[in-house]
Design a protein that fits this description.
mainly alpha
Length: 79
């Protein structure tokens, strides 16, 4: 078996150490298991941005292409 040295954050090292102690196995065994599982599947970009998407009838259809909607853009507001 080959050896690989990696640098871990304190939090990750503590997590691996706790798991190894509780199961009474070597830390390397925990690391091998986690590497074998692979990276967690992340959500799609669309899923991550779903709360930012505006789907409303009141939004103009030409919002991104009409310069009329940019009037006042970049100026300070006086709320």
């Amino acid at each position: 078996m080959r050896t690989l040295t990696v640098k871990l954050t304190d939090q990750l090292f503590a997590d691996i150490s706790r798991a190894a102690e509780s199961r009474k196995v070597a830390k390397s065994e925990i690391v091998r298991e986690r590497l074998a599982q692979g990276a967690p599947k992340s959500q799609s970009l669309w899923s991550q941005m779903a709360d930012l998407v505006i789907e409303d009838e009141d939004v103009p259809a030409d919002l991104s292409s009409s310069r009329n909607h940019l009037s006042g853009y970049g100026t300070n507001r006086t709320d």
